[in-house]
Design goal:
Length: 425
């Protein structure tokens, strides 16, 4: 197939690598892409937020499938423009994308569908926020209602810090103050064609910037898959997935369909395993980053078949996806100052040496080409690279990943050293 992937991050690079690994002769395009993606797909120039421009490109180049990676084009309605012209697109339309675009919308859908989640109060002023704090108590959970590039959520016992976070976002609209939920977190992806879902393998990501879950929230500093500890509580990964499918994914998909906004694309369920059962923290409307980087390398079923079936309304004909018994971890290399004020434009050395480590692939998030032929790439954002390692067990995968990331030189960069440490013991 001819496949166009919209986006410029590590998630999109991971999707492209999975499509390329099928060895099916796909012709892969990406816009805008990055320096790493350029080695695995043809970079093209098209405004990913302009549905007409994307549709025109797809028609002109006979694209068979468009995969929308980031949330912004989804919320902008790019998928709607493509569907109106009959072009298969993996990603929900503008109305359905509000499941990620508005935390308040997502809470309403969950309530209507009977999906287990924490209590939430919509606060339109500082006084409302203070009242919600008094009602729900500490630790305080405050979420910006709209898109915030993974930085709109704060969880803290410091009331003043929580209030400051809320007042930062209030000028843009109401915020949600939520009940704090305790327990291990799980990310679970569901492919949906609007009626049917197919689950991928669970993953866990690490949101805090520093070891031991210290420091500010980030877009994600690492992840691993599968989650062997799920068997202790649920008997097996399969039983856990079936439970979440029945209690979370299908009720939401049915509710969205009943409201005339069918969800076609990737439903990302951010879950927490509380003493009272599995509850939803949030939904996203696209593949998660960095979880995609550890889920897709283990996928044995051709990704292109799953995406096209979902985009075409034929997912029920697809069997449950199959996964390798191998494990995968990813460690994110972040620029100095990330997440508050990342330093960009610095050269990255040692990538070839890192890629030589057995079982390792380098997935690019924010890189650009060298200033001169043969020069080093440069960092263009906060999360710069993902080092992904696939191994027979977590101890082996961790050794591979940290050996590789140790070979990369980016002045001032930092990364967590405890990704998947608990499951490797």
């Amino acid at each position: 197939m001819k496949i166009l992937v919209l986006g410029s991050g590590a998630r999109e690079h991971a999707i492209i690598l999975a499509l390329k690994a099928e060895d099916a002769g796909h012709e892969l395009f990406a816009s805008p892409g990055n320096a790493g993606i350029a080695a695995d797909a043809t970079l093209v120039t098209v405004d990913q937020l302009d549905g007409r421009a994307v549709t025109a490109f797809a028609n002109e180049h006979s694209i068979d499938l468009v995969v929308i990676g980031p949330e912004a084009p989804l919320v902008a309605g790019v998928a709607d423009a493509l569907r109106e012209r009959g072009i298969p697109v993996f990603g929900p339309g503008k109305a359905a994308a509000q499941l990620e675009g508005s935390k308040a919308f997502a809470k309403r859908i969950m309530d209507a569908a009977g999906v287990p989640t924490g209590r939430a109060v919509r606060a339109a002023s500082a006084a409302d926020v203070e009242a919600a704090f008094n009602d729900l108590g500490a630790p305080y959970v405050v979420k910006a209602d709209g898109l915030a590039a993974g930085k709109g959520v704060i969880v803290t016992s410091d009331r003043a810090e929580a209030l400051a976070h809320a007042t930062h976002y209030l000028p843009s609209g109401p915020v949600l103050v939520e009940e704090f939920l305790a327990g291990p977190e799980v990310s679970l992806f569901f492919l949906s064609d609007g009626d049917t879902v197919r689950a991928l393998s669970p993953a866990q990501d690490f949101k805090r910037a520093f070891d031991g879950d210290e420091g500010p929230n980030t877009g994600g500093m690492g992840a691993y898959s599968p989650l062997p500890w799920l068997a202790e509580q649920f008997g097996s990964e399969r039983e856990f997935v079936e439970l979440v499918t029945e209690q979370v994914a299908m009720p939401v998909i049915r509710q969205m369909d009943a409201e005339g906004t069918p969800f076609i694309g990737l439903l990302y369920a951010g879950l927490i395993l509380t003493p009272a059962g599995v509850k939803v923290i949030e939904f996203n409307a696209r593949f998660g980053d960095p979880e995609t980087q550890v889920v897709l390398p283990r996928l044995r079923t051709p990704l292109s078949e799953l995406l096209l079936a979902a985009a075409s309304g034929n997912l029920e004909a697809q069997p449950q996806p199959e996964f390798s018994d191998e494990v995968a971890i990813t460690v994110v290399l972040a620029s100095e100052g990330y997440p508050e004020a990342p330093q960009t434009g610095r050269q990255i050395a040692g990538l070839a040496s890192a890629a030589d480590v057995d079982g390792v692939r380098i997935v690019h998030a924010a890189t650009a080409g060298p200033d001169a032929p043969g020069g080093d790439l440069v960092a263009t954002g906060g999360r710069v690279l993902n080092v992904v390692a696939v191994g027979t067990d977590f101890a082996a995968a961790r050794a591979q990943a940290y050996e590789a990331i140790g070979r990369i030189d980016l002045d001032g960069a930092h990364y967590r050293r405890d990704i998947a440490a608990a499951v490797a013991e």
